[in-house]
Specification:
The chain has 766 residues and is α/β, with parallel strands linked by helices. It contains 23 helices and 24 strands. Strands 10-14-15-13-12-11 form a six-stranded mixed β-sheet. Strands 2-4-5-7-6 form a five-stranded mixed β-sheet. Helix 1 packs antiparallel against helix 4 (92-109). The termini are far apart.
Length: 766
């Protein structure tokens, strides 16, 4: 075959696959709609539409010599022709056969390697014969399933004029042309490059304004000395110094000053004209780039429903495999999102649907016992949250998530300790389901049970710059919230500086920015914290999370230090930085295949000043912050204490003689002078009569507990500044917050107490 003919056949097959895929989608949707339709009249309308799709597919298959597909389509035509003639009617057995046939057509359209290796006339004939046999066997079943009354109704139904079923309703057709998506992607990438040019012109405009301002100041200064120059000139004219050097040069200087002022005025005029021209060019170019980018994005956006077309069919097949009865409802499928995002998020959504089927929806008999409808409901609702984000809510009305099983699975994987398992809130426990390997299923199946699906969902959503969260009520159901950007080309970002390094933080997870005074930074369990809106928040130096070398502090922190509060996956951490800049539009650039996965870095961007700046990966950053939060994270303006203080006085207030002796020995070995008190009253008495640099106190004590002791110390003007460390077995969040409320500087749980832990806190407080 000539190369020209081969190329023609290749293009013809490519167009056929696109056309065939559309016919199969409409056929599948028609079958699903047909199953839900009970009236005979509507059934005939839908059957007519399906018949047309199958007939068109058969003709297209014949054109490209796909005989196996043509044979299967002929068999389907026979059954729908019989249905149109009222010879047969609906039955579950028939629908099962029809779905099997459509599935097989899909496999013929996109065969696997093993299927490609086994093609041949014998297999084609066998495939068609088996389908005909299935259809012939289904026919008597169908006829027996139709009640006598229904058969009589079938006989009197008149032929109806075919029309579109609800599944096939479409808007008025518009002129379209097929373009390969890689070509569109290439054009979009080139268009996105123009965004850098737009940002550069904005920077040029700003720089010209600054230059003009400097020239204006320069001119004002020249104007101020003009009277002095005039005085000098007049004096020279009145006085003549023969032979003097000054007599020859001073007139030249005054003439130069006059010329300089004239030249400066002309220079200023030209600069202003250039500034106006650059501003106009920036407005025109900015508008053109924005319009072009918007149009290109529109060319590449698709309705979310386009990736969900196969989901009803999937739900039907899986539910029947598991002897369950469920329905999938999709709302808001017309919401449009960047095609690249849809391609990435399709599989994660499929994971969620599989989880709902396998873990969520109960079997009909179980649902009836719970006084629920025997038919379960899976609902996918898509909506646009704002101009840049869309939200996908995927929910089921099943059994909900058993948090006890989640914690047990996390314990088995050593993701949490037994102590943590007891203290976790319901929301914190629920967040564990996204960890790799965590599963509530007692058995691993081909659908679920490996604990990977939800981890993949979170990873993919975060990679796209989105978020995923979950809500669940035991016995009521579960809802997943997936928030995604509408496009991945650009997003809003906040530049921050750590030492001389610049980074971009995506704006979406940034809850707020604030200035924090150093005296408001406290330590709880060897972790620095701050209080925002009445809540204790972990504080981590961004440079520590990124493993950057710590520099000597510079500047003055009297007005406070800047922090960025990031909320992500039910966790909030405040990151301390050196400077925060204004939010701006950022264009994402990948790091390339050589750097496909760099911890804490999601990509890079070029700022308006042409600097290349890394974009931070928020998910990685939060994990890195958790790892370093137990270390000594100090504010940039406060120098770390490298030497442990010696000969400082410590009062240990502890009613247990064992704990008291242990604490005393640890502190004395480190060089502290230690006194002890047996309870809060004894401790308060010693504090008022002596002088101590720090107090280490238990909480649960007779006569006066540690909380009340701390409150009394803070209320005493002479003692109020004394650092207080609470060391206790109480580890609930409420107890920690109460410790901070009464004024403790540090809160250490005895279960996590070790020598280095205590001494590190002591060193930083003193």
């Amino acid at each position: 075959m000539a190369e020209k003919d081969k190329e023609f056949l290749k293009n013809l097959l490519s167009m056929f696959k696109v056309e065939a895929d559309e016919h199969l989608k409409l056929t599948t949707a028609g079958l699903l709609e047909l199953e839900k339709t009970s009236t005979a009249e509507k059934q005939i309308i839908i059957v007519e539409n399906i018949f047309r799709e199958v007939h068109s597919l058969k003709g297209a298959a014949r054109a490209v010599n796909m005989k196996e597909m043509e044979t299967l389509c002929q068999s389907l035509e026979n059954i729908f022709a019989a249905w149109k003639r009222k010879e047969i009617g609906p039955s579950q057995a028939l629908f099962d056969v029809l779905h099997q046939a459509v599935d097989r057509l899909g496999r013929l359209l996109a065969p696997t390697d093993s299927e490609n290796a086994a093609t041949g006339k014998s297999q084609i004939g066998e495939l068609g014969a088996s389908l005909e046999k299935l259809l012939n066997e289904a026919r008597p079943l169908v006829e027996s399933d139709i009640p006598t009354k229904d058969k009589q109704e079938h006989l009197v139904i008149q032929n109806l004029e075919p029309s579109l079923s609800p599944v096939q309703e479409k808007a008025t057709p518009t002129e379209t042309v097929r373009i390969a998506t890689p070509k569109l992607d290439a054009v979009l990438l080139k268009t996105e490059e123009l965004l850098a040019v737009k940002l550069a012109t904005s920077q040029h405009d700003t720089e010209l304004r600054e230059i003009n301002a400097e020239v204006a100041r320069w001119k004002r200064e020249w104007t101020k000395i003009q009277p002095t120059v005039g005085t000098i000139r007049r004096n020279l004219e009145k006085t003549s110094i023969n032979g003097s050097v000054a007599n020859g040069h001073l007139p030249k200087i005054t003439e130069f000053l006059d010329w300089n002022l004239h030249a400066l005025t002309g220079f200023e005029s030209k600069l202003k004209a250039l500034e106006r021209s650059v501003q106009q060019d920036h407005r025109i170019l900015g508008g053109m780039v924005d319009d072009l980018l918007t149009d290109m994005k529109k060319a590449l956006i698709l309705p979310v429903g386009s990736i969900l077309e196969s989901f009803p069919h999937l739900v039907r097949n899986l539910s029947r495999d598991q002897a369950k009865d469920m329905e999938l409802v999709i709302e808001g499928g017309e919401t449009e999102i960047d095609r690249r995002i849809l391609e990435e998020i399709k599989d994660p959504l499929l994971h969620l649907v599989r989880n709902c089927i396998d873990h969520g929806i109960e079997k009909p008999e179980e649902r009836i016992q719970k006084k629920k409808s025997p038919r379960g409901m899976i609902r996918i609702v898509i909506s646009q949250k704002d101009s840049s984000k869309a939200e996908i809510l995927l929910s089921d009305d099943g059994r909900g998530i058993d948090l006890a099983k989640v914690r047990a699975s996390a314990l088995k994987l050593d993701l949490i300790t037994p102590q943590q398992a007891e203290s976790l809130s319901n929301q914190e426990s629920l967040a564990l389901i996204f960890a790799s390997g965590v599963s509530t299923s007692a058995m691993i199946t081909d659908i679920s049970g490996r604990g990977l699906g939800l981890a993949i969902v979170r990873e993919k959503a975060e990679k796209l710059g989105g978020t995923v969260a979950v809500e669940s009520r035991l016995g009521i159901g579960t809802t997943f919230h997936v928030v995604l950007p509408l496009t991945i080309a650009t997003f809003r970002g906040i530049p921050v500086r750590v030492d001389e390094h610049l980074f971009i933080l995506p704006s979406i997870p940034v809850n707020r920015v604030a200035q924090i005074k150093k005296e408001n930074i406290k330590t709880v369990e060897n972790k620095e914290t701050i209080e925002l809106d009445g809540e204790a928040i972990s504080l981590v130096h961004l440079g520590d999370a990124l493993e950057l070398p710590r520099r000597e502090p510079t500047g003055d922190a009297k007005d406070g230090v800047p922090v960025v509060l990031i909320s992500h996956n039910e966790k909030s951490i405040a990151f301390l930085v050196d400077e925060i800049f204004s939010e701006q539009e950022v264009m994402v650039k990948s790091l390339g295949r050589q750097l496909s996965r760099v911890r804490n870095i999601a990509g890079a961007t070029v700022l308006a000043n042409r600097k290349l700046v890394p974009i931070l990966n928020v998910s990685d950053l939060m994990q890195s912050a958790v790892r370093v939060s137990g270390r000594s994270a100090r504010v940039a303006a406060v120098e770390l204490e490298k030497e442990k203080p010696r000969n400082k006085s410590v009062l240990v207030v502890e009613d247990s003689i064992t704990s008291r002796t242990l604490l005393k020995s640890i502190l004395e070995a480190a060089g502290y002078n230690v006194d002890t008190a047996v309870d809060g009253i004894d401790g308060l008495t010693q504090l008022r009569s002596g002088k101590f640099d720090v107090v280490v106190s238990d909480v649960e004590m007779p006569r006066l507990n540690g909380f009340d002791l701390t409150a009394k110390i803070r209320a005493d003007k002479k003692l109020a500044a004394t650092p207080i460390i609470l060391v206790t077995a109480l580890q609930s969040r409420e107890d920690r917050e109460r410790g901070m409320d009464v004024g403790a500087n540090a809160y250490i749980v005895k279960s996590s107490l070790d020598q280095s832990n205590l001494l590190d806190v002591m060193g930083r407080l003193m």
